[in-house]
Amino acid sequence: xxxxxxxxxxxxxxxxxxxxxxxxxxxxxxxxxxxxxxxxxxxxxxxxxxxxxxxxxxxxxxxxxxxxxxxxxxxxxxxxxxxxxxxxxxxxxxxxxxxxxxxxxxxxxxxxxxxxxxxxxxxxxxxxxxxxxxxxxxxxxxxxxxxxxx
Length: 150
Description:
Layout: H1 7-15, H2 23-34, E1 40-41, E2 52-54, E3 59-64, H3 66-69, H4 84-107, E4 111-116, H5 117-125, H6 127-142, E5 147-149
Parallel strand pairs: 3-4, 4-5
Antiparallel strand pairs: 1-2, 2-3
């Protein structure tokens, strides 16, 4: 199936996708802040420059887009029809980079919490889901666990 947009239009669309301060990120940060948690954004001294870093809890939080970071089994992690070789290389690089960041965080004894975009979408729809996920995140920060994906 051919792309319905011209290469210039597609390029413009793709370049408009932000890597920082995305809607899911801002939503999640506001939830934490409202509950009294204070954090740093894109902390440069922490491997991977996490979206949110809670120094008090030594926890790096990444709000991952399912498409870009290849959330296994998620409907948002589809493969584009045009130029699949290009996309596969790009996705493989992202997954490889994510693994390196996780390993580096473990070496530095920093907890790693990954919140997937699809989870954030569910949280935005249901208050019950929002409360449940935030509770899991807080329990993780207070526990001895090192890595959690929600």
